[in-house]
Amino acid sequence: MNKTILHLDLDTFFVSVERLINTELQHKPLLVGGTSDRGVVAACSYETRGFGVHSGMPMKMARELCPEAVVIRGNAGTYSKHSDMVTEIIKEQVPLFEKSSIDEFYADLTGMDRFFGCYQYASELRQRITKETGLPISFGLSVNKVVSKVATNEAKPNNQLKVDFGYEKLFLAPLSIKKIPMVGDKTYQTLRNLGLRKVKTVQEMPMDLMQRVLGKNGVVIWKRSNGVDHTPVIPFCERKSISNERTFDKDTIDVVKLRGILLAMTENLAFQLRRGEKLTACIAVKIRYSDFNTYTKQMRIPYTSADHILIPKVMELFKALYNRRLLVRLVGIRFSHLVSGNYQINLFDDTEEALNLYAAMDHIRERYGDKSVVRASAMGARTIGRMHNPFNGQPPIVLAHRKQ
Amino acid sequence: MKFIVSSTYLLKQLQVLGGVINNSNTLPILDNFLFDLQQKKLTVSASDLETTMSTELEVDSDNEGTIAVPAKLLLEILKTFPEQPLTFVVEDNNTVEISSNHGKYALAYADGAEFPKAVELASPSTTTIMGDILATAINKTIFAAGNDDLRPVMSGVFFQFSPEHLTFVATDAHKLVKYQRADVSASQVAEFIMPKKPLNLLKGILAGSESEVTIEYNDSNAKFSFENTELICRLIDGKYPNYEAVIPKENPNRLTISRNQFLSSVRRVSIFSNKTTHQIRLKIAGAELNISAEDIDYSNKAEERLTCSYQGDDMQIGFNSRFLTEMLNNLGSEEVSLEMSLPNRAGILTPIDGLDEGEHVTMLVMPVMLNN
């Protein structure tokens, strides 16, 4: 049976939310993103796009291109609140949906044709969202996720598009290969060098050739170009890792500061693990030097969620990793290989006092926020930490590339 | 060099020794058995450098000599023979020829002098113990020993000898077993850590054995001799953690329950627990024990209720179910008691019945930190 997959995407989501809060910003060029020197554009209004601004671009450059734009730093909390409002409406209206990011949804409408007519149903859903939340939203409707997503991007802004069954290839054929999800700048360059520009050419190519050029990804791109995609709509997003990283406004070589930040990150992530009743078995530390060379080092450890085990391991990794005597631009930590469970107490290493201290600190954090109690050595890093629970099944709220 | 020996007799002895030989050896000579013939006495040895075991066999011969025979090949061929006398003859061309009723087989052998010599124990202390008691002590403790290469002392069993009693302890820092015999004693106080491998061998040989085992030991090695067999091994170097200090003294909450019931409930419930952490939760209130587990990733869930006798405050405690099943399985009693103080302190599992005179078993299991 053919599926019917709906892809919904909130148009310039952060910008729309800002305009909702402050109506004066309507129809004015608007940039949302990091405001420091190293900030990047997370979202930009359609008015600025004429100046060549796009998201992911350094904020400094965007300002030069479009000096009259209003720049807003943005607030993740507000955005997720508005995103939740939209989620609620979708949840009510469709049988199965996947929230793939803060402003994107996939819904499986298979079988609903019989009663309502999917296109009409989706249109009504879109109207309802716009009416109730005031946020513009676009959708694409087709037989699978990839074609629907491409359709949405074609429909934007604030519009809708349906690709009838059997017309997927025809719909994709005249588009640029850049429109296929997963063709980024690098792949685009590779394909352009092969003389490919339109999806049509890829459709006419044998699959083997794509495989030879791009390996496994080539096959996926070829399939996508032909409108073939069998990925299901997954209603729950399970976290496979949790991480935290920090780009400095100014590159630093202050090791004490770096250690303090790593410590604060570890402490915070370890608390997130304990709160979500998770254990990690793999920790990784990442360093980006001022010359943009990025190094990561990871280590397998026995399953744990205890600060006193994780912190020394992180410091050990950092010590092994930081050896270039160069200015550091970014440091970060990732915990992966997560499983649900609680910390297994050790007979010899854990004292009752230490365990009670963990329990008490976690209790305070639960109640007064995760930065209410921290180690003294982590106090220098004030802005590390996040307020939400990473294990609630929702995609991470990231202000897409706040920094470059 | 020539000798005649019964095939099944030889096989039986060699199979025991074969346990010493590692699958992959850095020294090729260690893939061999050492045959040392002194007229009617054939001493066969196997070694992995850490552990050396040798057995004396009665054979029909009037020669002398030493050769190293490939272990795998020899064991394989011996397994196929029905009971019959085998004649081993060492030929000039570095092969040993075995003649059976069925035919002849030739194996290349190495020079016996290449085989590493077993260590001689300098100024050892001695104690004797019944084979079966030693096997039981090993059996009761060895499962609790750890596998962590970073903490080698915990990968062995701690032998503590004193004039009052013998104590055997094993722990991996999450569970601990202390097995004490007050009916056996040593002449002086001594302690050493035995690695797992030789203990597993001893456990296999000595189970049910009525013979006396002589244990000789010094700072670096221990030697176990019984009947016609000797096992010499290197001890684990290092200081054993102070386990007495971590056994909680005050345990106001005491649960008494049928071991079999408890074990089968834990087993059933743990099927539904997380496949990596095996975590289960015990809730005790009044005379009811509630055992539950949940695997959130797959939406599996189980809960069972048992009646038990319980004195103490209502409590909730989480355990790795693997530790509990291992321990409960290892005990042989009808009833067990689980003593606890707090949800973040060790639970002490002890058998209530079925112990010999002077036998004491204490098992400790550390809980997991549950969120309340």
From TrEMBL, chain A:
The record marks F14 as: Substrate discrimination. SUPFAM superfamilies: DNA/RNA polymerases, Lesion bypass DNA polymerase (Y-family), little finger domain. It catalyses: DNA(n) + a 2'-deoxyribonucleoside 5'-triphosphate = DNA(n+1) + diphosphate. Its EC number is 2.7.7.7. Pfam families: IMS, IMS_C. Binds 2 magnesium ions per subunit. InterPro entries: DNA/RNA_pol_sf, DNA_pol_Y-fam_lit_finger_sf, DNA_pol_Y-fam_little_finger, DNA_polymerase-Y, DNApol_IV, Rev_trsase/Diguanyl_cyclase, UmuC. Keywords: Cytoplasm, DNA damage, DNA repair, DNA replication, DNA-binding, DNA-directed DNA polymerase, Magnesium, Metal-binding, Mutator protein, Nucleotidyltransferase, Transferase. Residues 5-184 form the UmuC domain. Its cofactor is Mg(2+). Mg(2+) binds at D9, D103. Monomer. Poorly processive, error-prone DNA polymerase involved in untargeted mutagenesis. Copies undamaged DNA at stalled replication forks, which arise in vivo from mismatched or misaligned primer ends. These misaligned primers can be extended by PolIV. Exhibits no 3'-5' exonuclease (proofreading) activity. May be involved in translesional synthesis, in conjunction with the beta clamp from PolIII. This is DNA polymerase IV. It comes from Maribacter arenosus.
From TrEMBL, chain B:
It is found in: Cytoplasm. Residues 129-242 form the DNA polymerase III beta sliding clamp central domain. Pfam families: DNA_pol3_beta, DNA_pol3_beta_2, DNA_pol3_beta_3. It comes from the Bacteria. Keywords: Cytoplasm, DNA replication, DNA-binding, DNA-directed DNA polymerase, Nucleotidyltransferase, Transferase. CDD domains: beta_clamp. Residues 246-352 form the DNA polymerase III beta sliding clamp C-terminal domain. Residues 1-117 form the DNA polymerase III beta sliding clamp N-terminal domain. NCBIfam families: dnan. Belongs to the beta sliding clamp family. Confers DNA tethering and processivity to DNA polymerases and other proteins. Acts as a clamp, forming a ring around DNA (a reaction catalyzed by the clamp-loading complex) which diffuses in an ATP-independent manner freely and bidirectionally along dsDNA. Initially characterized for its ability to contact the catalytic subunit of DNA polymerase III (Pol III), a complex, multichain enzyme responsible for most of the replicative synthesis in bacteria; Pol III exhibits 3'-5' exonuclease proofreading activity. Forms a ring-shaped head-to-tail homodimer around DNA. This is Beta sliding clamp. It comes from Maribacter arenosus. The gene is dnaN.
